[in-house]
Amino acid sequence: MLISCYTNDLIEAGCDEAGRGCLAGPVYAAAVIFPKDYKNELLDDSKKLNEKQRFALRKVIEAEALDYAVASIDNYEIDKINILNASIKGMQNAVGMLKLNPQFLLIDGNRFKAYKDIPYKCIIGGDAKYLSIAAASILAKTYRDDHMEKLHEEFPQYNWKKNKAYPTKEHREKIKEIGVTPYHRLSYKPCQTLLLEL
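Structure (tokenized):
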């Protein structure tokens, strides 16, 4: 089972994002606060779970967390400030949306920028180590998947319902064939390269 907390006495929020490697759509981020003694043997890094498991756990997380929030940064801002800064801003926004003020942040990965002077710890692979980060990864992933299914209805030819805008062979070939949409991240090299080949 994953670790329940990093500190003994502080209100912790675990933070993670989803969609950094996608060629289109927003990046989503989430923050989750659990009780100190929280336990859940099923919670894990969202990448280790199938879709059915992720959506089932989302209901559990939303019911059992002391607080949670989900934020997104659209493709236009990603192109403007780059995906790293967009991911950090998304996590900061999610923390800012919490009703319960966290005293410590657990960040998945190795980069973050301080938010309102709240102490934080970056943990590489944190979504496979800490319950709150794993929960944030699940919320970010499932909320983004929901959003990409809505965008799929607008542009079904890219099959975002299935590939969620990751650079699959199918997705890249469709960009070559019919070009980009208003949701594509034009600063991404795959999009730039494919556009140059048109």
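Helices lie at 51-64, 75-81, 83-97, 131-154, 160-163, 169-178, 189-197. The mean pLDDT is 95.
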